[in-house]
Predict the structure.
Amino acid sequence: MEKHEFYNNPRFHHVQHPLIEHKLALLRDVNTTTKQFVELAEEIAMLLTYEATKDLPLETVNVETPLETAPCQMISGKAVGIVPILRAGLGMVSGMQKLIPNAKVGHIGLYRDHDTHEPVEYYCKLPADAEQRLLLVVDPMLATGGSASDAIKMIKKRGVTRIKLCCLVSAPEGIRRVLADHPDIDLYVASVDRCLNENCYILPGLGDAGDRLFGTK
Ligand code: PRP
Ligand code: URA
């Protein structure tokens, strides 16, 4: 595995685990069905969430066990919001909600123009108390980084300061772009792939995540 310079950036987190590697291999496989793809994306998103929420603040609460009162730790306050970048980001939400059922979900609508490869914004609806939460912005694919960088810009404009970006498959180009545009956010990825092709698709990648999630091709 190439040791890119961004591995020295403490804001960059390549989440590595045998379960993630195994599930990513299945996710990439062209013969994986839509049903399997949806399940795998959900599962890898859960594993990323485990890492991305490692520093959530805890508070002590007293819990009555059948035997006595136990001082326990629970996540304090309004903790998390999940913000999928439409449309493929939707494929990561259900897994994350299983781990954080109280998370509010916002949506950001962006698509990449197929000719210019530039992101076009069409929708943004965040939880009303978004600025009190850690927002996990999610998108399976980080290619040029244009969509994620713009989405984060839109979220910051609405007063949110605590933002983490979670992606399943990323290219070095997109990682560099996001870390350069937003040095104040943390980035979690399950894979760092080799490069982009001439159409800005990730190699080896997994193809078009949205089409594979929703069976549109
Ligand atoms: C894909 C993907 C990201 C974006 C990544 O979405 O889900 O949002 O491309 O590319 P970038 O890093 O170069 O911006 P797409 O625009 O194809 O829309 P979709 O989710 O509706 O399929
Ligand atoms: N969007 C995708 O869905 N796949 C890529 O490889 C790049 C952008």
